[in-house]
Design brief:
Layout lengths: L8 H19 L5 E5 L5 H9 L4 E3 L5 H10 L24 E7 L7 H14 E11 L1 E2 L7 H13 L6 E2 H10 L2 E9 L3 E8 L13
Parallel strand pairs: 1-2, 1-3, 3-4, 5-6
Antiparallel strand pairs: 4-8, 7-8
Helix pairs in contact: 1-2
């Protein structure tokens, strides 16, 4: 699976990183390992790791040139590891365990089997109580949430018929079947959503920053 997150440029990452961070501050563990899937050029992970210094951040990206860009973006950051060559479709993933997984703007620019692999892999590597955070545009109940999303979906499908905005209900059902319970659904700017799933909570595994 070639990562497509770089298609939409750095401006999108700059626009959405603040609102995403606000959600991550509430749901991520204060300590532990946070794996980012499809880190692109590393702009998000560099920003998040600077703001949330407690966890160790593990970026990942299947594209070698983007991994070099990530390394440059996080150079000198003590709480960020070198990026992994991780393609969600190649199992097992090259990381045995994580306390949280962050995935931003991937599933609409990859085939549906990448979403299935993301959820399945997350269920395998997340610790009990671990968080899967997914951000992006979605369809709701079979329809688009805004005309701009409908136009975006059409452009994606013209570029590759396997791409397109996913129905949120399908993603939530897929996660539930994998043992990841929906904990929070957050409406975000520009008609996007944050979805927060938790794997089989076990008392004492770790404490999130806040709860709602």
């Amino acid at each position: 699976m070639a990562n497509q997150t770089g298609l939409w440029g750095c401006s999108a990452a700059d626009r959405n990183k603040g609102p995403i961070l606000e959600v991550l501050e509430e749901v991520l563990p204060e300590r532990g390992l946070v794996l980012e899937i499809a880190s692109g050029a590393g702009r998000h992970v560099a920003y998040f790791a600077a703001a949330l210094a407690g966890p160790v951040w593990q970026p990942s990206e299947p594209d070698a040139e983007l991994r070099r860009m990530i390394s440059a973006a996080v150079a000198g950051m003590p709480n960020v590891r070198e990026p992994l060559d991780l393609d969600v479709l190649r199992r097992p993933w090259p990381i045995p365990a994580a306390d949280a997984i962050v995935n931003i703007n991937m599933i609409h620019v990859t085939p549906w089997d990448a979403t299935e692999a993301l959820v399945g892999g997350a269920a395998e590597v997340l610790a009990d109580g671990g968080i899967l955070y997914m951000y992006g545009p979605y369809r709701r109940f079979g329809g688009h949430t805004a005309p701009s999303n409908a136009a975006f979906d059409e452009r994606l499908r013209m570029q590759d018929g396997r791409w397109g905005l996913r129905d949120m209900e399908d993603v939530e059902r897929l996660a539930s079947e994998a043992g990841l319970a929906l904990e929070r659904r957050v409406a975000m700017p520009a008609n996007n959503f944050s979805l927060v799933f938790r794997r089989g909570r076990r008392r004492g595994s770790f404490s999130p920053r806040t709860g709602r």
